[in-house]
Write a structure and sequence with these properties.
By secondary structure, this protein is of the alpha/beta class. The chain has helices at residues 15-26, 41-46, 48-65, 78-88, 95-103, 156-161, 176-187, 207-219, 308-327, 339-342, 361-366, 381-386, 419-427, 432-435, 448-456; strands at residues 5-11, 31-35, 107-110, 113-115, 120-123, 126-136, 140-142, 168-172, 191-195, 223-225, 230-236, 239-244, 249-252, 254-257, 261-263, 295-297, 345-348, 353-358, 371-377, 393-399, 404-412.
Length: 458
């Protein structure tokens, strides 16, 4: 092979691309990892890691305040929080990630990769050839609304990478990015206004989750404006003014536009294969792109589940599929990414947290399932010990025909660590009768599992 010939070429060096490439390299295939920005991708430098680093100190302070006898200060040390955030991003230096990639046997190619024909990828004029497969793992980019007057604004990148606390911030959008960044910066001392077009934020979750998050945001001083669409933007001496459909104008030193994301298929050459730029690449459960037997994709770019852990899961399936095909081209025996359909776990790292897996009640009914819904306040010995005045709710959605869980939602302080038990129950199709024998430890918040099953009638 020449320096431009590989078995597999992976376009996109974020966590998804890294997982796919590491899998094929471990299977003995010569693999190139093409990245235009930082190896490690969005999650490492502008999303999961820095956002949670900004959120965690505020959560720790709030948790301490809920337990009498714990000495706490009046406010966070913003400089220390930002410095710790910088540590998690390696100060936006990817040399450590490159070292890992090369140690895993990957060839890191810097530049913007673009499909340039069958099994061919152009990287800033250099053409690479793959004998086996090309894998697209380019992720997603912010979806920016067409607002009159929209000039300078923050996206999630600027919000997670800001070098100082904004004096004031207007957040447009009530999804995960919107609520997390509103709370993070409010707890660091910014005056924050969150604008939501619907009745509540987090519209894809159970309604009670969004309601509890609103309570938490307002307790932190965030002004939450619901039922208001943005209709225009103007520049002021102090920053930006957002004009709302209600006739009100809200202003801040910065405007964070958090109105969703779309697949990063721009300037990728997908049109040559019958796909549209900005739209998801359709894949089967092995990650193979529809109609192109050598092209694979994983992560946000497929539009399936825009979550790092799900993208990495899909990437592992893709990598295994490619290696299995190389070793044995007979009918595939590889794992496939079926969890994307029914068992996607997600955490919103606000305070209170929201932890959800599977289907909401509405989604389950839309799927034609005969479901029974059990709702409870999280009020057990473990939650009382965890925090004075603990407020939380739990919902269990049961498929009555199979007597298995199809959806679970927890909302409350520190509920995220209970989510994997729910994920296992759904993936394993554990019946409620069998789940009754999974005894929760006392006194923990997990005792709510027993209360849910008792409410079900076991």
């Amino acid at each position: 092979m020449s320096d431009d010939d590989f078995d597999v070429i992976v376009i996109g060096g974020g966590p998804v691309g890294e997982n796919a490439a590491a899998r094929t390299a471990a299977g003995g295939l010569r693999t190139a990892l093409v990245e235009a920005e930082l190896v490690g991708g969005e999650c490492s430098y502008w999303a999961c890691m820095p956002s949670k680093a900004l959120l965690r100190p505020g959560h720790a302070l709030a948790a301490a305040r809920r337990v009498p006898g714990v000495p706490v200060g009046d406010a966070l040390d913003a400089a220390a929080v930002l410095a710790r955030r910088n540590g998690f991003t390696s100060d936006w230096d990817d040399s450590g990630q490159v070292e890992w990639a090369e140690g895993a046997g990957l060839t890191v190619v810097r530049g913007r990769g673009r499909l340039a024909g069958e099994r061919r990828v152009s990287v800033d004029g250099r053409v690479l050839t793959a004998s086996r497969a090309v894998v697209v793992c380019t992720g997603s980019v912010p979806r920016i609304p067409d607002l009159p007057g929209l000039g300078e604004y923050w996206t999630s990148r600027e919000a997670t990478a800001a070098r100082q606390v904004p004096t004031s911030l207007v957040v447009l959008g009530g999804g995960v990015v919107g609520v997390e960044m509103a709370q993070a910066w409010a707890r660091l001392g910014s005056s924050v206004t969150l604008v939501v077009s619907g009745e509540r934020p987090l519209p894809k979750f159970e309604a009670f989750a969004g309601d509890l998050v609103v309570e938490g945001l307002r307790e932190d001083g965030v002004r939450v404006v619901t039922g208001a669409r943005a209709v225009g933007v103007s520049t002021t001496d102090g920053g930006t003014a957002l004009e709302l459909s209600t006739g009100e104008t809200v202003s801040g030193a910065h405007l964070l536009v958090a109105t969703g994301r779309q697949p990063a298929t721009f300037d990728l050459g997908v049109e040559e294969f019958g796909f549209r730029a900005g739209e998801a690449l359709p894949v089967d459960d092995t990650g193979r792109v529809s109609g192109v037997d050598w092209l694979y994709a994983a992560g946000d770019v497929t539009g399936r589940a825009l979550l790092t852990h799900q993208g990495k899961y899909a990437a592992r399936a893709v990598g295994t599929a490619i290696v299995t095909g190389a070793v044995d081209p007979e009918p595939w025996t590889t794992p496939v990414a079926t969890a994307d359909h029914t068992a996607v776990p997600q955490v919103v790292f606000t305070d209170p947290e929201v932890a959800f897996v599977g289907r909401t009640e509405a989604q389950a009914r839309e799927a034609g399932l005969d479901v029974r819904v059990i709702d409870l306040d999280i009020a057990v010995a473990g939650s009382s010990l965890h925090a004075d005045g603990y407020r939380g709710k739990a919902r269990m959605v049961v498929d009555e025909r199979k007597r298995t869980l199809v959806g679970v939602t927890f909302a409350g302080p520190d509920v995220a660590e209970m989510l994997h038990a729910a994920t296992i129950a759904i993936v394993g199709e554990v019946t409620v009768d069998r789940l009754w024998h999974a005894v929760p430890a006392y006194p923990t918040i997990s005792e709510v599992w027993l209360r849910l099953l008792e409410a079900y009638g076991l």
